[in-house]
Amino acid sequence: MADSKAPARVAWTTRSAFILAATGSAVGLGNIWKFPYMAGANGGGAFVAVYLLCIIMVGLPIMTAEVMLGRRGGMSPISSMRKLARDSGVSSRWAWVGGLGALSGFLLLTFYTVIGGWVLFYIAKMASGSLQGATTVEAQQALSDLLGNPWMVLAGHTLFMVMTLWVVGRGIHKGIERSARVLMPILFVLLIVLFGYAMTSPGFGEAVRFLFSFDFSKISGSSVIAAVGHSFFTLSIGLGAIMAYGAYMPRETINPRTGKRTPVSIGSTVLLVGVLDTVVALVAGLVIFPVVFAHGLAPGEGPGLLFVTLPVALSDVLGGMWVGTAFFVLVLCAAWTSSISIAEPPVAWLTEKGISRPKASLMVGAAAWVVGLGTVFSFNLGSGYTLFGMNFFELLDFVSVNIMLPLGGFLIAIFAGWVLKETHARKELNMKSFGIYMVWRAMVRIFSPLALVLLVVFSLWKALA
Ligand code: PFF
Ligand code: NA
């Protein structure tokens, strides 16, 4: 009934548009800000190894499942899940998986834009040269001055929220697709240049050893939990963002000149996006850690890592100011395309309720802005308020990323593997190789859910031991 009122299905203009938008979603603050500081705080190689294992065993199969469910459903995650549950003859309560996802996404959005706001300030700081010649202590001071000022943090949060919802409000083609086409190429060019620059740093070898030498004894319960959650966060899975983008993915593309039809394969597309995301995280680590070691800084610095080490590293080199500006512009491109995708599922859902896209964007943005005040203040006025030893930001980050996303991913795997009719899954994935299809199916039915359960049990055991 709702279906008959649904507007004609919108779709990405090309396969490459989906790849750019999905990569834009995946590559974000998670790769450039969070991954390095988490690896630094969780023993380097030990964390990286578990993280890579999670990407392969859990991340890629679930990402494939999400895009498949999205394309099959063709609507916002909530409505797609309801429709697919109905088609499969099970309770429409499965729509709650979409609802849980929209809620996790909403919570992520409220703090993602706060950190995005710091990035805006750092572009200005680098470009103005105010950090040229700064020592480590001075750079740390500059960061605490920024975070200690609630008005500044609030201004950044507000601006970033407006930038995000402005793009979402303009729609799939003029907003999301166009922004990805402009921002993603800039990101990749800047990253390659910075990587070349980092390879010449004296700390490069130590950074490689730090990130890739594996020491089992260094694995702790909390580092496993962190790695599981981060593998979901970094691939944008477990909350329906990639499902929402999958809904706009065409089944085939038609060449306008020859009229030739080419099927769009979900499997190979997802693999490409997953590999790009992983490569960007590792390269970002290889850009940041040489600097950390060459300047004798501590890798376990926490969320401030990116904002302190880079300015320090670049403070005494010729043209460092420009390299630094370029770097934070890169982080901005990454963060912006990601926050756009976090906001898409709730906005898409509201548009199905008959609300216009600009208005829906305004509603989501305003609500997320208000909840985001909690994060804004947890770096200054409210830093003394803690629960389980975590301030508001840390608690929100922990609950959404480490609990809600893995739970959402678990349910998505179960639905794709056990509930959805096998003929439907097979037809939608349309994989060339039956062998690969069977591997995927075994992964979502058994290995990924089991791996998630085992990882959680293992980390609890490690934590209690
Ligand atoms: N994948 C993004 C990152 O690594 O920064 C964060 C993210 C985007 C998470 C979109 C979830 C999401 F739906
Ligand atoms: Na990512």
From TrEMBL:
Keywords: Membrane, Symport, Transmembrane, Transmembrane helix, Transport. It holds the Pfam family SNF. PROSITE patterns: NA_NEUROTRAN_SYMP_1 (PS00610), NA_NEUROTRAN_SYMP_3 (PS50267). The chain crosses the membrane at residues 12-33, 45-69, 90-123, 151-168, 180-199, 219-248, 269-297, 317-339, 360-379, 399-421, 442-461. It is a multi-pass membrane protein. It is found in: Membrane. It comes from the Bacteria. InterPro entries: Na/ntran_symport, SNS_sf, YocR/YhdH-like. Signal peptide: none annotated. Belongs to the sodium:neurotransmitter symporter (SNF) (TC 2.A.22) family. This is Transporter. It comes from Isoalcanivorax beigongshangi.
